[in-house]
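Re: your question about Bile acid:sodium symporter family protein

S., sorry for the slow reply, the queue was backed up all week. Below is exactly what I fed in.
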Amino acid sequence: MNRFLPDRFTQLLIGTVLLATFFPATGSFEHFMHIASNAAISLLFFLHGAKLSREAALSGLKQPRLHLLTLASTFLLFPLLGLALKSIVPDLLTPQLWMGVLFVCTLSSTVQSSIGFTSIARGNVPAAICGATASNLLGIVITPLLVTLLLHRHHEANGMSQVLSILLQLLLPFVLGNLMRPWIGDWINRHKVIVNVVDRGGILLSVYAAFSVAVAQGVWHLFPPGQLALLVLVNAVLLGTVLLATTYGARALKMPRGDEIVLVFCGSKKSLASGIPIASVLFAGSGAAVVLLPIMLFHQMQLMLCAVLARRYAARKESEQSGEHPQQEGVPAAATR
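Result:
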């Protein structure tokens, strides 16, 4: 039953949203929170850069097809599906929530959960490390460019300046952190708890700052209550379609099962850790808060569904190793039992 409950970080996010709803930052405190959240975001990406192993990133050259397929799923298939859904049922969600859904489609894959689920499923863990790392690194540049393209933010007077802002606020600290890795990498590896606190604390700070501004602008009146259920439905269609496409696509290409697992888990994830900082830079006021709702929901949905899939993959592997009849080829692990 616990696997169907929100993970602890999602619970913290919900608590932060409620805190901002009932006790929003206002006046000079709002200005302070804006500065603090920007500083926290830059520090967060500095630490991400310092943690990145260049060897892990370059090891992807050994399996170019797998990683190109993963990136295509993340940055091509997802946006195309999002645009298709919006064109088919444009009135299903409010324009603001459709903007949030399309924003989700532009995000990079996760790192920690993609690798974790690949390991549980007995997949190709080194390839997952490389693929997830490359996706996050490229996402710093690709995501703002896709947002500019998909959401037509280049029509706004400050559209390109926002792209430059995200490069300066996110990419520059990331590069500096990676350049300093030879001197601070060991310290970061020894103090992972502190790094995780800074990492998650920066995200929660950004959420609080964004929702504080949004609450003052009446964010909760921007869409009817039923929109939340419809948003869950849209997220489910996106996630389910990509999971099926990556599963059957890998089997059609006769990929080894370990590589199939990498494509399924790395190609279907969307990073909350990258999405929240990027949204806080690209969107302002209530727009940022509404954009955050779809990715917060998608985050929990992908964790719950992929946890089930990972266990099914592992059970299938154990069944084959013990000499029992393997699951019929061509049937996704999620469809058995």
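The radius of gyration is 20 Å. The longest helix spans residues 286-321.

Happy to talk it through on Thursday.
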